[in-house]
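Collaborator request, handled under Task 6.
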Amino acid sequence: MTTTDTAMPSITIYHNPKCGTSRNTLAMIRNSGVEPEVIEYLKTPPDRATLLALIAATGEPVIHAVRTKEAVFTELQLDAPGVTDAQLVEAMLQHPILINRPIVVTPLGTRLCRPSEKVLDILPAPQQGAFTKEDGEVVTNAQGQRV
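Structure tokens returned to the collaborator:
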């Protein structure tokens, strides 16, 4: 006897609940009808292999995965000429606050979702209704279409 596959697509968000962009991204994932695996990366930081894999999967340069506005970025002189990708990764491993967020992994790809609506490009299911960001910006209408 076979059953139809009703499993939800696997989605993971590396999340910081104190970040509005991260909260908006999580809410858009949920608005697509999926409850993702939520990893609060400040409590459970990724290991080196996971961090490297996430960065590689985004297709973006390592520096895009770094929160350059954090004080520790300047304190560690990571903005100095000649800082290598390996040094940036090491800094993110030692200081997870430096990891830019949210990073979302879905069957359709991995993205650093800044701005939060970038998540819509990799969600397997459409938005199930209207979505408005915390700041009042309307992202999708009642039919789930981008506005």
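The cover message to the collaborator said: "The beta strands are 12-15, 37-40, 103-106, 109-112, 131-132, 138-140. Helices lie at 20-31, 48-58, 71-75, 85-94. Please let us know whether this matches your experimental observations."
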